[in-house]
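Notes, p. 3: input format for complexes.
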Amino acid sequence: MSKTILVTGGAGYIGSHTLIELHNAGYDFIVVDNLVNSQKESLYRVAKIIGRNIPFYEVDIRDAVAMDEILTLHPVDACIHFAGLKAVGESVSKPLEYYSNNMTGTFVLVEQLRKHGCKNLIFSSSATVYGNPAQIPITENCPKGQCTNPYGQTKSMLEEVLTDIQKADPQWNIVLLRYFNPIGAHPSGQIGENPNGIPNNLMPYITQVAVGKRPELGIFGNDYDTHDGTGVRDFIHVVDLARGHVSALSAIERGCGLAIYNLGTGQGYSVLDLVKTFERVNRVPIPYRILDRRPGDIATCYSNPSKAFEELGWKAQYGIEEMCRDAWNWQKNNPNGYEQADY
Ligand code: NAD
Ligand code: UDP
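Output follows (343 residues plus uridine-5'-diphosphate):
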């Protein structure tokens, strides 16, 4: 019998891509999402791609009564926990909302999982926990750094909380996945990143310039100590990232206890590298202007992903050109994201 996975935040960007990879790997799943940062349409589209309905509950994970009911109805083998608020800038102006949603949400979720006898969890963490990294490329042994915003604090603190829970009760298998910079979209062009309002992140900004929704990209600084002065990041195709979760499930099935993995490609590209590659691959101009540095940004951040390869057999397959191709394929086919859905 196939295993059933509870996917919190499954209507979101990374969650929706992960549903497809779970399906491809033979897993069943149920989705809980309160749609605070997503639309139901993403789930309809995933359902179309995989050819089956998706059990979905529009519920806030902080609602213990509802979570209890859902888990009573659907015994699950593991949980992949994406649900959370993720906008760095917004977290500075709304710290309480971020701490409440991300921290309390995880506490309620973990309590309910435990109550229902499921002690297997994969948590969406972030390279942001490394702060200004002590070493590049970043291995999992690299000490955690100072997070400069409430969003990053929630990731870092939740890593500690989950580590303590696993230490106190070794029956728990908990995998902390530290994502680098997910971009791109499913090659079908049917699902992708759909930010509200002005995008905070680089790739959705680029694609909105490409599609004519914004006149130009602002590049935050060209005086960093990098090969062209712009920030360097480890961009990873969202489908590769999604597959990383399937690999992490196999670690849980082997009884991994607490495990931490970087999910990145190990390759650093600059902001300008990404802009130029996008223009070349898609033959679309991206006008840009150099702006001041964005407060809190670091010069360079890329992973050493070899632990995930050695222990999970997972390795990113897609390169920067495919990331640019698929991001554009999604945006040009859906200039207004999921907005035009007529459900
Ligand atoms: P997303 O906003 O697209 O998806 C998160 C989903 O969680 C959304 O569908 C939202 O509606 C849902 N959600 C939020 N709070 C909820 C709650 N209390 N109850 C139920 N549902 C709730 O974001 P994403 O990019 O898919 O990110 C998924 C996870 O990965 C997040 O935890 C995020 O912090 C983390 N992460 C993302 C990135 C990135 O660059 N996208 C990088 C590192 C870590
Ligand atoms: N960036 C930029 N213009 C934008 C958005 C981002 O120049 O409109 C730069 C940012 O300064 C950083 C890189 O792109 O060097 C990646 O930023 P993003 O917000 O996508 O991810 P982060 O690495 O900050 O999590």
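The CA atoms of residues 60 and 135 lie 38 Å apart.
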